[in-house]
Amino acid sequence: MNLQLKHLIIVAYITFLFSSFLVSPIIAGSQKTLQTSVEKDFWLETAGTAWRYFKPGVGVSISTGLNYGSLNWHRLTDWDLGIYISALIAARNLGILGEEGEWGFNGRIGKVLKFLSERPISPNGIPYWSYDSDSGGSPSEELASPSDFGRLLLALDDLRKVNPEWASQINFIISRYNVSALANSKYFAGNGVYEYYSARGYWAFDFDTPALKALENLGNGKFMNLYGINLPKAWITSEPLVLAVLEGKADKQYKSILDKVFEAQKRRYENEGVLTAFSEGAYFDPYYYIYEWIITGDGKTWVLWVNNKAVNASEAIFTKVAYGFYAIYGDEYSKRLVDKVKNLVTEEGFLEGVTVNGEILNIVTDKTNSMILEAAAYAYLKPLKTMETTLPINETEKKVFEAFKAVAEAEEKGGNISILVAELNSAIKLIQEAEATGDKAFIEKALVKLDKIISEAPKVGESGLTAARWRQIKTMVALSIEVAVGLIVYIYAPKAFWRAWIKVKGKWKVKTVEKR
Amino acid sequence: MVIIVAATVYQGFFPKKSTEHFSELGILGPNMKIADYPKELRVNESFTLYLYIGNHEGKIAYYRILVKLGNKSSFINETVPMDAPIIAKYEKVLMNNETWIYPISLSINKEGVNLRLVFEMWIYDEAVNGFKYYGRWNQLWLNVTASKPS
Q1: Which residue among A14, A17, A408 places its CB closest to the CB of B59?
Q2: pLDDT of B33-64, one tens digit each?
Q3: Are A17 and B9 within 8 A, CB to CB?
Q4: Has residue A9 been placed in a domain?
C-alpha cells in the first residue's frame, strides 16, 4: 500500500466517524416517533380486524342496515343497536369509516334512525326485546329491558354530540317511547354495576331513575375481599365498567370500581395462575350466552351464570375485555391477556374468546367487535383526552408551569439553570405560604419572580447554546491538531528516525571477526 | 491514532450521561433514619417526619408530594392514586441528580385504627400540562386515639 493510499484511508475513516456521530442523534429521535407510530399502527390494525364484522352482508343486513347480534343470530336487541352506533362512531373517529355514501357513516346512521322512527313497539310505548335484523320486525312480544334501552340512549346521546343536526330527529324518536316508564323501573333498584351504566343513558335525556341507589351504597355497605381488594358485595363483572370508561361515561367513583375489578383479576392471575378477563358473552351450546360474575349479590365469587342460574362451565377469557383492559391500563397483565387472544381472528372479525382450558369460542358477535373498536379509538385518541391521573390546575399554577417549561427548555439547550431553579423554588414556596396564610401579597411576589424567570430563561438557554458551540469548536481544533500531529509523525517520523540513527551510528565500522 | 481520534470526537459530542431514569421517594422518621416511625398517636398530636426526594430523571423535574389519609380498605397501586382526603402538599423543583430532604410536621384530626398515611409522588408532565401520578408511594400505618382530656 503506498503512502498516498494510506492517507486517503485515514481521511475517509475520520470523515466516516464524523458523519456517523452527527447523524446518530437524528436516528435516535426518529426511533421515539416510531415507537408511538407502532402503537398507533397496532390499534389501527386491531380496529381494522374488528371492523370486518360491520361490513354490509357480514354482520350488517344489506336490506335494512341493521346489525346482527352474531353471525348466527340475525336479530338485535336495543343493547346491540347501541353497540352498533358506538362502533360506527369509533370507526369514524379512527378514520376507517368515511362520512359519505350509502355505507358511509351518515348513510348507516340514517338507516338506524329510520328504523328507530318506524319500528313496531308495544301499545304502551315500550320497544320489544328483539327485532329481526333483515326485516326490522319483531319476532315476539317480549318487552325490552330498561338496561338494553339505557344502552341505546347512551349511544344516541353520543350521536347527537357527533352531529347536532341529528338532535331533533333523535328527540323525535325518544318521544315515540314511554321512556319514563322504563326509567321508573324497579330494575334500577338492583345491586349491581350494570344499573349505573344504563341509568346514565336516561339521565342524558333528562329522565330520572328514582330507584337507583347512590353508588357508595352499592353492596349495601358490605364488601368482599378478593386478594386484598375490597369490592362491594354486589353483582360485578367487567363489561359495563369497561364500556363506561371507554365511552367517557365513568365518573371517578365508577372508574375506581373498574380499577379494583382489574386489580382483583390481575391478582387472581398472580396468585392462582388463572388468566382472568370476566365479562358476558356468547358461549358453547347448550348455554349460548354466559355471565361471568366476579362477585354476585349474595357473595359468591368467580362464578358463571346462565339464565339466572349458576353453571359449572369452563371460564372464558373474553377478547373484548382483554383489548378493553389493554387500552385503559396498558400494563403487563393486560398485554398478557391480549397476547392470549390476539390470534382469534377471522375474515369476519374477532372471535369471542378462549376458555381457560384452551377451547376457542368460535363465535363472532357485534358486542365483541364493537368493544374492540371502542378500545382502539380510546387508545388511539387517548393523548387528546384529559388523563384522570392528573390534577386540576389554577391560574397561578399555570404560571408556575410556564416558568418550569422555560427553565426546562434552557436546560435542554445546555444553559446553567441553577439560579433559575432556586428562584422557581422560591416562587413555589411563596405560593404555598399564600395558600397557608391566605395572604395574596405572597402570590404577587411569586408572580413577579415567575415573570422574571420566564424572561431570563431564554437568555440562559442561549448562553448554553453558545457554550456548546464553543465546546464543539474546541473539540474540532483539538481533533485537527491530533490529526495533524498524527499525520506528521506517520509521514516524517520514520525518515527522521533513520537520519538520527545514521548520524549517531553512521560512522561505525563493522568488522568481521574470525571464529576461533 | 484512529482510536484517539474517535474517543475525542465521542467525548466532544456526547458527554457521559446516565441512561436509567427514575425518581426516589422516601419517608424518614423523626431522627432522619428509616426507623422510629410513629404508630400510636392522639388526635391533633403533631409529629415530625422527613421527606426525601431524589431526581435521577436525566433532566430537571417538578415534584408534588400529596399526603393522604385513608384506611385499610383504601386502594392504591402504581397506576391508581388513593381516593382519599389530602391533608398536606409539598412541591419542589429538582435538578438532575439533586436530592431534597425536608422536615414535615403533620397531625391527624380524627380517631381511627389502621389508618393509612400515604405519600404519593406526582410529577409535572408537559404533555398534559399538569401533574401526573408517578406511581411511587409510601405509607405509614397509624392508630389514632382521642386526645387526652385537658
Answers
A1: A408
A2: 988 999 999 988 889 999 999 999 999 999 99
A3: yes
A4: no
